[in-house]
Amino acid sequence: MAEPLIRICNLVKTYPNGVQALKGISLDVQKGEFLVVIGLSGSGKSTLLRCLNRLQEPTSGEIFFQGKEIGQLENRNEIRRVRKHMGMIFQHFNLIPRQSVIKNVLMGKLAEKSTVQSLFGVFSEQEKREALANLQLVGIADKAFLRADQLSGGQKQRVAIARALTQNPQVLLADEPVSALDPATSHVVMDYLQKVNRELGITVIANLHFLSLVRQYATRVVALKDGELVFTGKPEEITEEWFHKIYGESAREIS
Amino acid sequence: MKSRKIVFDAILFCFLLCVVTAALFAPSEEQWLNLPLLFSAVAVFFALGAVISLLLKNLGIVTLGDILFKTSPVHAHDKAWYRRFWMWQLLISLAAALLVSLVKTEFSFFELFNEDGFAGAIRLFKGLLDPNWDVLPRAVLNIIETIFMAFLATTLAIPVAFVLSFFCAKNIMKGPWTRSIYFVLRTLLNITRSIEALIWAIIFSVWVGIGPFAGMLALMIHSVASLAKQYSEMVEAAEEGPIEAIESTGANKLQTIWYAIVPQVLLPYISFTVYRWDINVRMATIIGLVGGGGIGTMLVQYQGQAMWREVGCIIVVIAVVVWALDQASAVIREALK
Questions:
Q1: Where are the beta strands (DSSP E) in A169-234?
Q2: Are A94 and B252 a contacting pair at CB < 8 A?
Q3: In whole angstroms, what is the distance from residue B215 CA to residue B288 CA?
Q4: Of B324, B284, B272, B36, nearest in space to B162 by CA
């Protein structure tokens, strides 16, 4: 097998209040995968993603990204360079309200800008075209000059995807991208994530709750339980038995 | 917290004991000014108060401290109000405080309805109600000075407060080093703010001389401290999500502040600033009284010569301008929501 895009070795994260969110996770992510992380709320899914782009500081362990160790980086500039290559989308979209959609998308370019350039909001025509093309890709180029807070939830999440794509990332981290959306809109957003994954070859790592979505979109699934990796495999391998192991005996699947 | 309750009750009892002692022994002026004696008496009374409140606690009586800090047992609430100990504690303490204030303010119906005094007041009101419009041009000129004094003070304060506000926000100053800067700045601003603009005006009128410049500097200092506090509270209330999102694109700290925080706080900033200008115009008239220039200085000159008709004209001008600005700032702030 080729060298993995991301290799996580024995990753531990203990929060200052003593909660052990991750208890030694080891995991390889191959280029081009659509990897879905499942598990109960509080199982460490979100912490895992946030350790990857260093929004959270790993307590110990190593993370290799394109062969380079990034889990213990101290230098802020190097951490920012890592983040530039990992786009992230969030449960609550986290767009900047009262700003236009296109400006929100252009913010994906901030890592390439000098501080002075960005304070004056200087973006080239080339960059604007790129932002528009990314909006086109997620099907809402016509909304480019509306204010971000005028969009619906699903549209906001698509703008968030466009913003992440503007970073030209290798990986897209999606932290419960559809948890705040209705089922129909969820499928639209997931379809666009799949499109990004298949057509642009961007590796996607997503936290999801619904197994129906997992079965439809994931190329591989890992499950976390109490900060430990309890399952790795194909989505169709999650049997009734595994389901109960991951979610507890009394859990029942919602379709 | 049980201890807070004990301290609170002890202070109340201490106060009551002090009042009773002062009433019974009627100390002389000399004794009042003897600070060591005064402090030791208060300390003794405080200790006594603490003993009383501990005793009450052992007896299981619900005191005002219990009510305030919610340490009372649940069953204690079903008695009629006049049978509750804490109710009497509250009433007696308030009555004692009222009594002391009446004595201290030398409250006197005789002075209020004294004939000579009354005649003076009537003369004053007559003057105020019949303003001398001859001084109107000068009053208008002076209030323009006041308005622009306030405007300049606010304008100069904005950029300073804007920059300071980020250094005074907890959610930005997270590291150990930055946190200590945060604490130093906060303390400095708190001290600056606790010194009234009036005092600053006195300081600056000595420093740069009596006039509008001194008043403007006083207002500016006070505005910086107040605005920085209000601004930084807005920064602290900014949503964490967008900040995280911009950080995750690889943006640096300044870019994150500029793109994720500033858009969130800009409208409340403007709203606070307009309101501050409104406050500053009002303050500027007061500051004029101690030599800060503008309409206040003119007012105090005529007042000193007991020229009440001229004072009346000035008061009308002030009232009209303050009212108009109050309305304008309310309309602007409403529109910004």
A1: 171-174, 203-207, 220-225, 228-233
A2: no
A3: 7
A4: B272
- C-alpha span between B260 and B277 (Å, rounded): 27
Collapse the DSSP code of B134 into the 3-class scheme (helix H, G, I; strand E, B; otherwise coil) and give the result: helix
Determine the Cα–Cα distance for residues A103 and A86; give it in Å rounded to an integer.
Answer: 20
A43 — phi, psi (to 5°)?
-85, -10
CA of A182, closest CA in chain B: separation in Å? 21
Taking CA atoms, what residue in B is nearest to A49?
B248
On whether the CB atoms of residues A107 and B252 are closer than 8 A, the answer is no
pTM of the predicted model as reported, rounded to 2 decimal places = 0.77
**Could you give the ipTM of this predicted complex?**
0.90
State the sign of the Cα–Cα–Cα–Cα dihedral B228, B234, B240, B242: negative
Give the largest CA-CA distance in chain B.
Answer: 79
Q: Measured between CB atoms, which of A96, A113, A119 is closest to B260?
A: A96
Task: Report the alpha-carbon angle A27-A29-A30, nearest 5.
Answer: 145
Residues of chain B with pLDDT under 50: none
- Give the residue among B254, B232, B233 at the shortest CA–CA distance from B243: B254
Which residue ranges form the domains of chain B, and what is each CATH number?
2-110 (no CATH), 130-336 (1.10.3720.10)
Residue A100: closest CA among chain B residues belongs to which residue? Answer: B263
Closest-CA distance, A53 to chain B, in angstroms, reads 7
For A9-47, how does the pLDDT look when each residue is reduced to its tens digit (9 = 90+)? 999 999 998 899 999 999 999 999 999 999 988 889 999
Q: Which residues of B touch A57 (CB under 8 A)?
A: none
A98 touches B at CB < 8 Å: yes
Cβ contact, residue pair A113, B255, below 8 Å: yes
CA distance B11 to B14: 5
d(CA B41, CA B100): 18
